[in-house]
């Protein structure tokens, strides 16, 4: 059985490609064959990770998205021998891909094939908080009982809380959706609010260079302390993912 990891969120710039890269690295660190796919027609950030051998799925016909092009994505999932399949989806293709998956009952079809669909949803702070919470609610309500969800809390734009100061985990929106999800939320991954002048800068530069943790940690051109901080960031993510046994 393959685990099919899909990053989804209708809001751009919330860290979906970062999430996909970390998931792929984590799974590979466990010795699991991983297939990585980038479906973002505008900003194919995930494809930039050369060491992850990310495939680009072309979904554009001219200036428009042709949903039929998603058929190839399903062929790859069905025929490739991989323990984990990590798919990064852009904000511009969020609605077409979700409509395709739900309209064609793909999550249930994957379950019948023996695969587990796991949707990773980013919720951010700041001005994007409300939009990402709305996206979270919509995704959970639309996907069937065979789907699991992982929530990534990203404080890059500010604390992940409402304008009234209520943390997302204690918000009425999350509590209501938790009841609706009926045990399908596997858990949270919290992106650490790193100090901007030290670990935050190191991690940001690593992401901008499309480097994996192992690549960065193996670079002697980086200072000892830069590598130490990146090692701690890596451990923070991997420890949290270790605590989500269902994924």
TrEMBL record:
Pfam families: CbiA. Residues 9-105 form the CobQ/CobB/MinD/ParA nucleotide binding domain. InterPro entries: CobQ/CobB/MinD/ParA_Nub-bd_dom, P-loop_NTPase. It comes from the Bacteria. SUPFAM superfamilies: P-loop containing nucleoside triphosphate hydrolases (SSF52540). This is CobQ/CobB/MinD/ParA nucleotide binding domain-containing protein.
């Amino acid at each position: 059985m393959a685990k099919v990891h899909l990053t989804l969120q209708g809001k751009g710039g919330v860290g979906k490609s970062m999430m996909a890269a970390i998931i792929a690295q984590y799974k590979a660190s466990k010795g699991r064959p991983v297939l990585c796919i980038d479906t973002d027609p505008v900003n194919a950030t995930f494809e930039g990770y050369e060491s992850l051998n990310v495939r680009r799925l072309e979904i554009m016909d001219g200036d428009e998205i042709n949903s039929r092009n998603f058929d190839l994505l399903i062929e790859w999932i069905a025929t490739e021998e991989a323990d984990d399949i990590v798919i990064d989806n852009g904000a511009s293709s969020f609605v077409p891909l979700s409509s395709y998956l739900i309209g064609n009952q793909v999550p249930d079809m994957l379950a019948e094939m023996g695969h587990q669909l796991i949707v990773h949803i980013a919720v951010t702070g700041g001005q994007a908080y409300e939009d990402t919470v709305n996206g979270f609610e919509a995704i959970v309500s639309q996907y069937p009982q065979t789907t699991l969800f992982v929530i990534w809390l990203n404080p890059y734009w500010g604390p992940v809380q409402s304008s009234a100061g209520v943390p997302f985990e204690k918000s009425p929106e999350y509590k209501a959706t938790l009841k609706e999800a009926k045990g399908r939320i596997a858990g949270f991954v919290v992106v650490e609010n790193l100090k901007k002048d030290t670990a935050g800068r190191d991690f940001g530069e690593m992401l901008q260079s499309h480097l994996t943790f192992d690549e960065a940690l193996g670079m002697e051109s980086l200072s000892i302390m830069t590598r130490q901080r990146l090692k701690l960031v890596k451990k923070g993510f991997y420890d949290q993912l270790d605590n989500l046994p269902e994924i």
